[in-house]
Amino acid sequence: MSSEIPDPDADATPCAYTDYREGEGAEELPATGEDATGVEADVWDALYGIEDPEMPISIVDLGLIYGVTLEDGHAIVDMTLTYSGCPARDMLTEQVQETAADVEGVDGAELRLVWSPEWTIEMVTEQGKEDLREFGLSI
Amino acid sequence: MAALENPADLDEREREALETLLKRLADDEFVLAERYTEWQVRAPSLESDLALANNAQDELGHARLWYDVLEDLGFEEQELVYERDPADFRHATLVELPFEEGDWADAVLRSYLYDAAEELRLEALEDSSYPKIADRVGKIQSEEAYHLEHAQNWVERLADGEEGHQRLQDALDRLFPHALTLFEPVDPDVETDIVDLGLRDATLEELGEEWLSIVVPYLESLELELPVSSQVDDDTFEITEEMLPEKRGRDGSHTDAWADLHDELTHTYRDLGRSETTKIMEKPE
Questions:
Q1: Structure ipTM
Q2: Cβ neighbours for B159, distance < 8 A, ≥ 6 positions apart
Q3: Left if phi > 0, otherwise alpha if psi is -120 to 50, otherwise beta: which for A53?
Q4: Of A54, A115, A120, which to mutate for an interface test with B (greatest number of B Cβ within 10 Å)?
Q5: Domain of life, per the record (chain B) (predicted)?
Q6: How many angstroms from the chain centroid is the CA of residue B22?
Q7: Which of A47, A86, B111, B146 is deepest in the core (most CB within 10 A)?
């Protein structure tokens, strides 16, 4: 039996295509709202409570939120997704928009889905990296 | 080139150019993804099955990024995907053809021909005068790089064996004329506008010739024979009328395979009498 199984190639490397390209971060990202004050800070706090649908990590620590601005009580959230084909896109964007709109002092919220700069693993915060390691990812 | 910032300020010519460019991009990705999914649970190995399914998901994501931009012009996603007349789809015939049954060589060669073209057209969109297009290019390129690598890896692997080589040759004979339709115009005047307005900075002719200058030497290096000659001299290539198939896709003429595929992909939507697409919900409503 065993003689039919070819010897493994001594030079083989495990799955050449598992190449987690690190990518470049953007200077002002990840944004976490640490300098925000007042209602803007409350919006960041509320968004911190939303988890990625697949992993136990806040979407803020994952680096998906690029910015929160408040204009006359109207919140504008700039957000990206890790992956263009994300099947949870509508679920997540609606949750973010509703969460921002529900913050006391916010009259309405608008979500702008942005794709530039594109998300990379460099946009995960240190806290986020810890959460992902805890979950079992090597990052 | 002045940026075309606000969709409300676009004149008729600008709108038509933008709509045409976006439909070319989105429909190619969408229809190719539909075809790729036919391989799910049928690819030759678990790994190749996962890889192609993943590429299909990427292409659907990219189609959606382009359909999103079409919403600036007043379209809605369900109209574009499920309610549009099949003759209004602008994809190249390459992506609508069914795979030869069980022929993995068809899938990987098609992927190579397509992804090599997509790399060039994305480059030509990097500085698009429509900012939403330019902003999306980087994200798509970062995902597409894997597709081309995957396709070439498989093409080379198949070319290395006798049966695989023959299958690739058969697929090339069949697919090559249809791959050329990737560079065909929807309407020649509108295509001129696309470039004049800076929406894309290379003409279809330039993209087609550049593509030929890449894929022809590559395929020949694998001892595959091109079914038609496109070489003018050592490093000049061109697409001529007689090389093209009867149906071109871009101009709204499609093969019968498209009618069947369109019928299939819209079947459930029509059957259930839907007027919008369903979504993944956090909690069922």
A1: 0.83
A2: B165, B168, B222, B223, B224
A3: alpha
A4: A115
A5: Archaea
A6: 11
A7: A47
Nearest to A47 by CA among A37, A30, A34, A59: A59
Cβ proximity of A58 and A48 under 8 Å: yes
Of B143, B149, B150, the CB nearest to A84: B143
- Token pair of B34, please? 């539909």
Cβ–Cβ under 8 Å, residues B168 and B224: yes
- Show me where the domains of chain A are located: 37-135
Asked if the C-beta of B140 comes within 8 angstroms of chain A's C-beta atoms, the answer is: yes
**Cis bond leading into A53, ω under 30°?**
no
Instruction: Please report residues of A whose CB lies closer than 8 A to that of B281.
Output: 91
CA distance B33 to A89: 18
Global pTM value: 0.89
Cα–Cα distance for residue pair B197/B18, rounded to 1 Å = 9
Token pair for A41: 């800070």
pLDDT tens, residue by residue, B145-180? 999 999 999 999 999 999 999 999 999 999 999 999
Within 10 angstroms of residue B39's Cβ, the number of other Cβ atoms is 20
- Residues making up chain A, counted from first to last: 139
CA angle centred on B155, ends B148 and B125, rounded to 5° = 20
Contact state of B280 with A86 under an 8 Å Cβ cutoff: no
Among A21, A88, A117, select the one facing B280 at the smallest CB separation.
A88
A2-45, pLDDT tens digit by residue? Answer: 445 555 555 655 554 444 445 556 777 889 988 888 999 999 99
Contacts of A84 in chain B (CB under 8 A): 58, 61-62, 64-65, 139-140, 143
Mutate to test the interface with B, among A15, A83, A118 (most CBs of B within 10 A): A118
Q: Would you tell me which CATH number, out of the four given (3.40.50.720, 3.50.50.60, 3.30.300.130, 1.10.3660.10), belongs to the domain A37-135? A: 3.30.300.130
Answer yes or no: do B279 and A91 touch at CB < 8 A. Answer: yes
CATH topology for B11-271? Ferritin (1.20.1260)
Tell me which residue in A90, A113, A116 faces B280 most closely, judged by beta carbons. Answer: A90
